[in-house]
Specification:
Number of helices: 6
Oligomer: single chain
Distance between the termini: 18 Å
Strand order of the largest sheet: 1-2
Largest sheet: 2 strands, antiparallel
Number of strands: 2
Strand content: under 5%
Number of domains: 1
Shape: elongated
Structural class: mainly alpha
Radius of gyration: 16 Å
């Protein structure tokens, strides 16, 4: 249970930083305008509200962090290990979330961000954001799980 809780908290921390990045980064709209990527996240649940985008993003960040703790937490025994596994986890979720699930939920084919020229910069921004998320997740998980284990031992 400690691994899931540590992963959830670390996921939220990584999600906050990634969310700030998505608040700043923009994506093209069909009308030729630009919108914050966090608003595009909200479109997955039928909204364009930035607040809804944040809520949905942080929910996903927590769940993905909990899965990290559950599936990979036992492999993270140092900050370096956390950074490495976090980077891998971030790239996995860039492919699953950013290149497959999100485009499909928005009515586009999987991998559309790479196939459509106007979306390629969005795909690269998403890759960087997912990597940052994974690195923060892994480092924070390492610290939180070490602290939780030390508390349990005393």
């Amino acid at each position: 249970m400690r691994r899931i809780i540590s992963g959830t908290v670390a996921g939220i921390l990584g999600g906050i930083l990634f969310g700030i990045m998505m608040q700043i980064m923009t994506a093209p709209t069909p009308e030729g305008m630009r919108m914050p990527m966090i608003a595009m996240v909200a479109m997955v649940v039928g909204s364009t509200s930035i607040a809804v985008g944040w809520a949905y993003h942080l929910f996903n960040s927590a769940v993905i962090g909990a899965l990290f703790g559950l599936l990979l937490g036992g492999r993270v025994i140092s900050v370096g290990g956390g950074l490495g596994w976090g980077a891998v986890w971030g790239i996995v979720w860039w492919v699953l979330g950013g290149l497959i699930l999100m485009p499909v939920f928005l009515g586009m084919p999987a991998f559309a961000p790479l196939a459509m020229a106007p979306m390629r910069m969005v795909a690269m921004g998403s890759l960087v954001g997912h990597l940052v998320y994974g690195l923060v997740l892994g480092a924070a998980y390492s610290k939180l799980s070490t602290r939780a284990a030390a508390s349990a031992a005393t």
